[in-house]
UniProtKB/TrEMBL annotation:
Name the UniProt record assigns to this protein: Transmembrane protein, putative
InterPro entries: TMEM86B-like (IPR012506)
The keyword Transmembrane helix belongs to this UniProt entry's keyword annotation: yes
Family from the record: Belongs to the TMEM86 family.
Originating species: Acanthamoeba castellanii (strain ATCC 30010 / Neff)
UniProt keyword terms in alphabetical order: Membrane, Transmembrane, Transmembrane helix
TM segment ranges: 28-50, 62-81, 87-106, 113-133, 145-164, 176-195
Source superkingdom: Eukaryota
One GO CC term, this protein: membrane
């Protein structure tokens, strides 16, 4: 009886009824996802355990390259018969590439590099929001979804700003507010993309939400309290979100 139960469970997993793979559109056992998450772990421990900032830089760059690799494969797999990527895939890939640039810039301790990274992510979030709202899922555009999503996000944005406000100085007061507004619009756009029952649309919604959550750790580390706990929470969320978005091309 026990053997039959075990065989049945293994069969169910294999058929995807208990643990469907890919999960959220990502092949988590594939080389890109495994390589990405391994590099994330190395990024987190490189400085605290080994005092190797150079190793941290190499590992984080490798992790970001893995989600670009995933996006390239996903966009190519969904290309038309002529090999042309969809407008959605082109904009999302460009946004992911800006994320890659932002990741590299944020490795530098300098303020100028931080601002370049911030702008890269800002433009990337605008690209994601545009792709999710206007290019991805089929159907007539309905602004009520975006309006409802913005209404849901408004209190969250206010709370985050209240938490950060006393830690922001000079130009960063305005830069962070603009950034918060843009990424907080990306999530309602993800809600619009995820309005239907299509699996990819739902995955984009989940990816957008995880991305938004990961940025809270980035903000805390940059403006409130630096510490390894921010990376332990934020980096896995960030890279999971990027892999999810990269894997769900239309």
């Amino acid at each position: 009886m026990e053997a039959n139960t075990t065989q049945g469970a293994e069969s169910a997993v294999a058929e995807g009824t208990l643990l469907p793979l890919p999960l959220l559109g990502v092949d988590w056992t594939g080389p890109a996802a495994v390589g990405c998450m391994a590099a994330v772990v190395l990024t987190i421990v490189a400085e605290p355990l080994f005092n190797r900032f150079d190793l941290k830089c190499l590992a984080k760059t490798a992790a970001s390259t893995c989600f670009l690799w995933t996006a390239l494969a996903s966009a190519s797999a969904t290309a038309g018969a002529d090999g042309q990527w969809s407008a959605f895939a082109q904009v999302v890939f460009a946004s992911l590439a800006l994320g890659w640039l932002g990741d590299v810039c944020l490795l530098s301790p300098g303020k100028r590099a931080f601002l370049v990274g911030l702008v890269s992510f800002l433009v990337g979030h605008l690209g994601f929001a545009y792709a999710f709202a206007c290019l991805g899922p089929p159907g007539e555009f309905d602004g009520t979804w975006l309006a409802g999503g913005c209404a849901v996000m408004a209190p969250q944005v206010a709370l985050v700003y209240a938490y950060l406000r006393n830690h922001l100085k000079g130009f960063m007061k305005y830069a962070v507010v603009i950034y918060m507004l843009v990424i907080s619009f990306m999530l309602p756009a993800g809600m619009w993309a995820g309005r239907g029952v299509d699996t990819k649309q739902f995955n984009l919604l989940v990816g957008s939400f995880i991305f938004w959550m990961s940025d809270l750790s980035v903000a805390r580390n940059a403006f409130v309290s630096k510490g390894p706990e921010n990376a332990v929470l934020g980096l896995p969320l960030y890279y999971a979100a990027q892999l999810i978005i990269a894997s769900n091309m239309f």
